[in-house]
Amino acid sequence: MSLATDPQPSAAAQLSPERLREAYRLMLAIRRFDERALELYRAGEIRGTTHPYIGMEAVAVGVCSALEPDDYVSSTHRGHGHTIAKGGDMRRMMAELLGRATGYCGGKGGSMHIADMERNMLGANGIVGGGMGLATGAALTAKLRGARQVAICFFGDGALNQGILHEVSNLAAIWQLPVVYVCENNQYAMSARADWSVAGGDPAGRARAYGIPGVTVDGMDFFAVYDAASALVARARRGEGPAYLVCDTYRYHGHHAGDPLNYRDRAEVERWRRHDPIERLRRALVERGVLSAAEADALDQQVQAAVEDAVAFAKSSPEPSVDQLMTDIYA
Amino acid sequence: MSLATDPQPSAAAQLSPERLREAYRLMLAIRRFDERALELYRAGEIRGTTHPYIGMEAVAVGVCSALEPDDYVSSTHRGHGHTIAKGGDMRRMMAELLGRATGYCGGKGGSMHIADMERNMLGANGIVGGGMGLATGAALTAKLRGARQVAICFFGDGALNQGILHEVSNLAAIWQLPVVYVCENNQYAMSARADWSVAGGDPAGRARAYGIPGVTVDGMDFFAVYDAASALVARARRGEGPAYLVCDTYRYHGHHAGDPLNYRDRAEVERWRRHDPIERLRRALVERGVLSAAEADALDQQVQAAVEDAVAFAKSSPEPSVDQLMTDIYA
Amino acid sequence: MAVPTAPAAGAPSAGGTVRHLTYAEALNEALREEMRRDPSVFVMGEDVAVWGGGGVFGVTRGLVEEFGPERVRDTPISEEAIAAVAVGAALTGSRPVAEIMYVDFMGLAMDPIANQAAKLRYMFGGKARVPVVIRAQEGAGRGNAAQHSQSLEAWFCHIPGLKVVTPSTPYDAKGLLKAAIRDDNPVIFLEHKVLYGLRGPVPEGEYTVPLGVADVKREGRHVTVVGIHTMVHKALQAAEQLAAEGIELEVIDPRTLVPLDEETIVNSVRKTGRLIVSHEAYRNAGYGAEIVSRVVEAAFDYLDAPPQRVCARDVPVPYAAPLEQAALPQVADLVATARALVRKEL
Amino acid sequence: MAVPTAPAAGAPSAGGTVRHLTYAEALNEALREEMRRDPSVFVMGEDVAVWGGGGVFGVTRGLVEEFGPERVRDTPISEEAIAAVAVGAALTGSRPVAEIMYVDFMGLAMDPIANQAAKLRYMFGGKARVPVVIRAQEGAGRGNAAQHSQSLEAWFCHIPGLKVVTPSTPYDAKGLLKAAIRDDNPVIFLEHKVLYGLRGPVPEGEYTVPLGVADVKREGRHVTVVGIHTMVHKALQAAEQLAAEGIELEVIDPRTLVPLDEETIVNSVRKTGRLIVSHEAYRNAGYGAEIVSRVVEAAFDYLDAPPQRVCARDVPVPYAAPLEQAALPQVADLVATARALVRKEL
Ligand SMILES: Cc1ncc(C[n+]2csc(CCOP(=O)(O)OP(=O)(O)O)c2C)c(N)n1
Ligand SMILES: Cc1ncc(C[n+]2csc(CCOP(=O)(O)OP(=O)(O)O)c2C)c(N)n1
Ligand SMILES: [Mg+2]
Ligand SMILES: [Mg+2]
């Protein structure tokens, strides 16, 4: 990994106790939100599909903690974690999952299309690779405006093989756009193992083909993700161009609730769970005295209460009325 | 460049005098054919567009000399050289350029769609990158059949940035398909300089991102191209998978006859012309005593006569009759 | 979902006993039989081999066990390459059956389909054959929202050189897929996600349903209803309801859109004098407009009322159930439109 | 090519003097004026800056000199990225005008156009705007063969959320492009390669042609001819020829297909009782079928004869001149069809 992008070992250390507690709270929120979403899906209260982010919390939160509020984020079909990490409102998220008029999209989008444009969260996306052009275009807007914003493009290991990634990586490199492509390598794309589908075996190595940095970190470690993201985001903000950040992580649950899960064994899941990102951050914060065990438990209670509040809000919200069908198509 | 793919320095040396003379004849044929095609285009006898291969002859002939007759080749919009190098018939080619019923496509295709399916030449292609799937699919057919055929995919430096190349490169690598992607780096894609459009600056480096060999050679040197192609084709035939072969070359003329040519200077053209591939091969063959200067000149006369014969054949051929309009759509 | 409909009138009586299979099982059987019959047939796509033993909807289930990973090939997520490589394989003598998981993703694969598969034979003056089948599933009704619920058959119907198939029953699904695989042209084979679970009679063993032959599902004197996919079943339900009122619908399933069995449709309209075309695809520039135009061109003097289109509204498919249902054409819409036609209110 | 046609009836009288510019020059002026007016407007595409001083057809000529390489951006050959990045830029407040060199290459860019640009606003519940213009040129007649001669407007018309514009004159080219750039929705702006050299009156300076307003090019009592792009001019030629026989054509240029000025077309057919729709796009599932269907739905009782479609044959566009001409709709076809309609031979 090139000097220019070495993480300042101090980056994470510089985080204030408040911001560290906030990061921990956000990771908890993602987990509790998606655990609850899975229950509601199984109970038949959520239609279509929902893709839990559980196990990957350190990636979304580690990266978004390194951002300014007006930085851009594009997301994937597995977008709940990115929305929460960017500061999204769990009430409007849960209302959207339940298809209510009070949801982020007024019930028109559902889980795969939640966006928070006020926070420059450019939306989950049902197309694998669909967010790549959006984030790259956002970075172009920032560059043309002379704004100091950076764009983050979250995508999965499976999306590594979409042609659009090749095209935008090349374009962002020659145009020196302020965008960081964050690969959430959770080892699988549905049933496809990343160690089979990704020729060459090294996602970060692909960045080097475009002459841009490719950094790989332990995606189960908040600090590692935050440090690397901080370095690459700072570099992009300085106008030094795009980079890849590859975060090795894992999805604890199936691809979605209906996943047969016949392609991996429990032992593998258990191995990864031993490195649980939330547990690790909790231990670190307790060690550092940023948080007492009691405070950590209390935080979890608060988060669970907030999730329940979101569910209650959603359930008490009306469904969209049919006269909304043909609105919002054209501006 | 990895050992596995080092050219046997002896490969070209092993070529018989007959094959060397044939290679020289083919390179001359390509040049004379396209010189004549340009004349005819300027005279208004060829419609649409025609892309001369002039200057790049060592690439098509160097690569195709390393092939078996039943190996596959996919081509580009600049396809005349590939067709001739694969053994195509200049009469049917010229007839196609003039839109005659006797042409390869019965006048339905024109310059950008000449194919010679009997020679497993899978056609020129009007879509930049359009041949990539065809060659890769041909390699898959060969693999499924257990045939020992190899597929060559010719493409330009501009095509390096098409998403499809990324997708087929990854697929061919994980499936270990017998295909060699031959990048004709003639420095420009219309007005786009390769040293600007290709992030990272090293086309061959992109191959390594997929864990496959990427070899760069002097594309103005028949022997260099032939040696590298022989090694990579042999490797593919052994079942060791795909590779990139990048040939540095140059197009002497405009992108097509209507090119304003405002994006490069004459001095650059002159520099490249000093390394003319046909001159170099001629000198080498004369030195080696494979060919006398007189024989070389005679060969050129023969070739020019053959081109004139092709033109005469084309001009004396009928245009397709309108009752052929709706045939050949469905099998 | 509608009750299983009977085999096509005059369908070749197949030797084997008739089982009640699902649409997905019927497709699976077609693939299995064709792969046994012809070694050049193979399957490729995302999650067609490993996932759940074969396919997100089970269409390729068990195939990798029987035919092995060389002929049942999981691919990375690379739709353009899936289509493009399949076309290249077909051009060189293979008979690939490539899967695009959702028709919505065809936007990534249109170049190899429309510029290569559809045109190579013609551009080469008839010297090539491209016997590729590209399967995908379309349709709404499951809350999959705007990027997973479209019906895009019109895109393919517009491109000469392609054939377009849209089975609505298990019987047709098996017979049409076998015919598509044996066809020497590129065939876009469009299934419907809501129909996978539909059961219907499927004879064991060998039979095909020829491309270009419509199926008159129900005869009637008053209104011809041409339905695609789920709309065939909804039309049959509408016919039941209207029968009580003495209004008879003649329900026709074209089964293939290219080639289109225009004769069967036109003859029906010559009899009924009224036409409704119904599909889940967007109404604007949908294939329904083509069918209406052809009928008007061929049977203008027989028309008692303006042909009507009962199609999806021109809106991205919404997620919430009430909105999604409102966006889709329903039995009630067919009933109301047919009634209005007969009562000369249109 | 037809003689330049006059500015649209009732077109805003622009301040400046009226010059005779080519269609390409008019488009260039529109881009220049909008880039001066709004700093968020920029241009991107292949060979739009350096090649020949700007654009394969000269549409972006000179723009890089005036606005610099930041706002006039040459791209590598990456159609999917050109469209996708333009959409992302538009979603974040820019107003990109992206160019796809030939509409034939849109097969590579359909996903960002149909799944992102067209749907983001709706999927996000109205909380986004995507003010992107994607330009391309279509059409045949220059021997460019099957992959460089298509007219694919129907693909875009089918997708709700997109607007589709097809100017036929220099006047409209300038006014419609300015309107498209100011529109807050994704607009697919389709030019015609054969029209770039067509000269016509273009007022200097500020005027726009609103999206959704057809232009009645010539009034007539007998047959309504709706033409797209070159077919507007061929229809005007046909009208001249038929006038001698006392057959009057009313020639309408819809100018934009989405939104479509259905009212102007329907009112015309209510007057003439006869309709011909003509485009260079393939006939099968072309937009002509949509126009025919809408007219039949809205004016059935006014029709004296079946509406006709005079469109390209359903064949990949051939290279050789005699074949290409035979594949395309010609003035003679319009004349013969109009005559047959009037003589009740159809
Ligand atoms: C273009 C496209 N192809 C296929 C799919 C179906 N699909 C949805 S998610 C997914 C797997 C994505 O894997 P990855 O990118 O690793 O993300 P993960 O699910 O692991 O977070 C697939 C194949 C899709 N939605 N879009
Ligand atoms: C998909 C697509 N995009 C753009 C074009 C227009 N075009 C034709 S050739 C060409 C340049 C190709 O450059 P390169 O790949 O380097 O090949 P070369 O012309 O140098 O041989 C372009 C942009 C096309 N035909 N197809
Ligand atoms: Mg993954
Ligand atoms: Mg080049």
Tell me about this structure.
The complex is a heterotetramer, with two copies of chain A (331 residues) and two copies of chain C (346 residues). Chain A has 331 residues and is α/β, with parallel strands linked by helices. Chain A is 44% helix and 9% strand. Chain A has a five-stranded parallel beta sheet with strand order 1-2-3-7-6, with helices on both faces. Chain A has a two-stranded antiparallel sheet with strand order 4-5. In chain A, α1 crosses α2 (57-64) and α5 packs parallel to α6. The longest helix of chain A is centred in the first third of the chain and has 26 residues, at 17-42. The radius of gyration of chain A is 19 Å and the shape is globular. Mean pLDDT of chain A is 96; it is low at 1-9. With 346 residues, chain C is α/β, with parallel strands linked by helices. Chain C has helices spanning 23-37, 63-67, 79-91, 110-117, 120-123, 153-157, 170-182, 230-243, 262-272, 287-299, 321-327, 331-342; strands spanning 18-22, 41-45, 72-74, 95-99, 133-138, 163-165, 187-192, 199-203, 215-218, 223-227, 249-253, 256-258, 275-282, 308-312. In chain C, the strands form three sheets. Chain C has a seven-stranded mixed beta sheet with strand order 3-2-4-5-7-6-12, with helices on both faces. A five-stranded mixed beta sheet of chain C has the order 9-11-10-13-14, sandwiched between helices. In chain C, β10, α8 (230-243) and β11 form a beta-alpha-beta unit. In chain C, α1 (23-37) runs parallel beside α7, α8 packs across α12 and α9 (262-272) crosses α10. The longest helix of chain C has 15 residues, at 23-37. Classes of the chains: A alpha/beta (331), C alpha/beta (346). Chains in contact: A-B, A-C, A-D, B-C, B-D, C-D. Bound molecules: thiamine diphosphate (2 copies) and magnesium ion (MG) (2 copies). One thiamine diphosphate sits between chains B (77-78, 126-128, 156-159, 184, 186, 188-190, 255) and D (46, 77, 79, 101, 105, 108).
